Structures are given as structure tokens and as C-alpha cells.
Amino acid sequence: MTHEPLGAAWLWLETTAPAHAMRQWLWLYPVVEIIHIVGIVLLVGAAAMFDLRLLGVSRRLPVAEMARHLLPWARLGLGVMVPTGFLMFAAHATEFAANPAFRLKLVLVAAACLNAAVFHRWPFRSVSAWNVDAEPPAAARLAAVLSLTLWTGVIACGRLLAYL
Fold first, then answer.
1. For residue 113, what are the CA distances in angstroms to 28, 109, 133?
2. How are the residues of the chain apportioned to helix, strand and coil, as percentages rounded to the nearest 5?
């Protein structure tokens, strides 16, 4: 389904060489999309494992060690998702910009990243008090629930792009 374009605001992006290649080369768009999905798996998989630990799963695993191990994977996933997402957007910028699922996806990504930043700025600073065999503070558990919810929403909106 297509949406009414939001004027020519994004048309310039669709005229770039990468956008043209994304639309014209038979395998480029699907390959970029697969790489984008791998980025999602890395980011959301790492975040989900960490969030589940904050919610009480595997309490004997140190939270700080999990963060040290999983955060680089999450960052790598985000680093893969952003450029591949931009390439896919460039190929159909006018249509995607008008798609409500795409706009909501961007809001959810921003909210999820803000949630992670707030978590690491405040609740995580006291991790030594609840690192192993202790219930994380309510703020940490709330951040985990928000993270799981927001990233699930991002994935859902990504899938809905094709249908709305």
C-alpha cells in the first residue's frame, strides 16, 4: 500500500546514487535488508538478555559483567542498523516518510535509546549494591520492561511497513 507523498521534501534523497542502486540492483535491497535484520538481532538480542537479567532471570550472573559483555554487541547492532536503515529509507524516502508505521518506528527507536541512556546514567551507577543475587531497584526493572516493550514495538513497526 502506498501513501500520499509529503511533498518533495525527501525526493532529493531518492535521486542519489545509493538510492537508485537500492531500487535497480536486483539483490542489493534484499541483502541490505538482511544485514539490517542481523543488526536488529544483535541489538535486541543483547538488550533482551540484559533486560531479562534485570527482571530476575539468572540472578547469580553479575549484572555489571553482563553489561560489559552485552553492551558492545548492542552497539554493534545499532551500528549496523543505522546505515542499512538509512539506505532502505533513501530508496523509498517519500513513501516511508508518509508511512505511519515508519514514523512510529523512529519515535520508538529514539525512546528506546533514551531509555538506555537514562538507565546507564542513573540506576546502573549503583549496580555494585545489586550486582549479584539481589533484586535490582524499581527504576532498573522499569527500564528493562520499557526496553523490551519499545524494541518489540520497533520490530513490529518494521514489519508493518509493508502493510500500511
1. 28, 6, 27
2. 75, 0, 25
Q: What is the DSSP string of 8-68?
A: TTTHHHHTSHHHHHHHHSTTHHHHHHHHHHHHHHHHHHHHHHHHHHHTTTTTTS-HHHHHH
With cell 535484520, the residue in question is: 37
> Grid coordinates in use for 36?
539490517
User: Which position has the grid cell 539506505?
Assistant: 87
Contact present, 29 and 90 (Cβ < 8 Å): no
* Cell numbers 538488550: residue: 47
Calculate the dihedral angle through the C-alpha atoms of 55, 49, 113, 105, rounding to the nearest 10 degrees. -100
**Beta-carbon neighbour count of residue 141 at 10 Å?**
16
User: How far is Cα 81 from Cα 73, in angstroms, rounded to an integer?
Assistant: 12
Q: 118-156, pLDDT tens digit by residue?
A: 999 999 999 999 999 999 999 999 999 999 999 999 999
Q: How far apart are CA 12 and CA 96, in angstroms?
A: 14
Other Cβ atoms within 10 Å of 68 Cβ, number: 10
The pTM for the full model equals: 0.92
